[in-house]
Amino acid sequence: xxxxxxxxxxxxxxxxxxxxxxxxxxxxxxxxxxxxxxxxxxxxxxxxxxxxxxxxxxxxxxxxxxxxxxxxxxxxxxxxxxxxxxxxxxxxxxxxxxxxxxxxxxxxxxxxxxxxxxxxxxxxxxxxxxxxxxxxxxxxxxxxxxxxxxxxxxxxxxxxxxxxxxxxxxxxxxxxxxxxxxxxxxxxxxxxxxxxxxxxxxxxxxxxxxxxxxxxxxxxxxxxxxxxxxxxxxxxxxxxxxxxxxxxxxxxxxxxxxxxx
Length: 261
Ligand code: GLP
Description:
This protein has eight helices and ten strands. By secondary structure, it is an alpha/beta fold.
C-alpha cells in the first residue's frame, strides 16, 4: 500500500482529486467504482473543478459500490442520489454509463447481483475503485465477518453501521436493515484501489486495516492482498498508525524522485 498523510480533509480531497483526474486524463474510458458517504464528497467536488478546466468524463463508465436495499433511487439518503448530485451532474458522466445494483424490493436479488457482476465484467472490469472505510473497518457494506472473496450480494447491516448512518434518514426507523454491496472479491478484482479516510473516528479502523493482520473481522485489511492500493488519510485518521513517519518519508522520497504527479 502507498500511504499519503495529508494535514487535513481539504488537502486530502485536493490530492485525491488530482490522483483520480490523472487516471481519467490518462484513459478517458476509465471504469470507476464509486463509494458514496461523506468522505469522498470533497474528492468529487475537486473532480467537478477538473471538469470545469476541461477534463472529459463523457466516455467514463462508473459502478456504484453499494446501495441500501429497498430505497427508491430518488430517495435523498440513497447513495445513487448522492453520487448523481455530487459527481455525475457536475462532470457530465452520461446517466447510461452510471450503473447501480438493483435494490428494488421486488427484484430477484440474487439474479440482480449476478447481473451486476456481469455488467462490470462486460465493461472490462473496474480500473479504479474509490473506497471509504467504516468505523468498524467495513468497505462498501462488507461488514466484519464478510468473506474476503465475496461478490456482489445482499447483506444485513450491523447495528453499529445503522447507528452511524441513521442521521441521513428522517427517523432512525426509516434506516434500511439491508443493502446490496460489491463483495470484497469484487473490490479486489479492480486494477487499482484508492482508499480515503478522514477524522479521528476512523483512526482505529485505518490502523487495523493497514497494519493489522488480514482478517474478516476488519474487512478493509483484505486490501493488503491487492498489489495497487493508494491510501489518502488526514492527520486525524492517520493518528494510530505505528509506521506513520515511514509512510511520510517514503512519500517525500517519491516526490523528490519525481515519481509522484
Ligand atoms: C458507509 C458506506 C461505505 C462508506 C463508509 C464510510 O456505511 N457503506 O460505502 O465508504 O460507510 O462512510 P463515510 O464516508 O460517510 O464515513
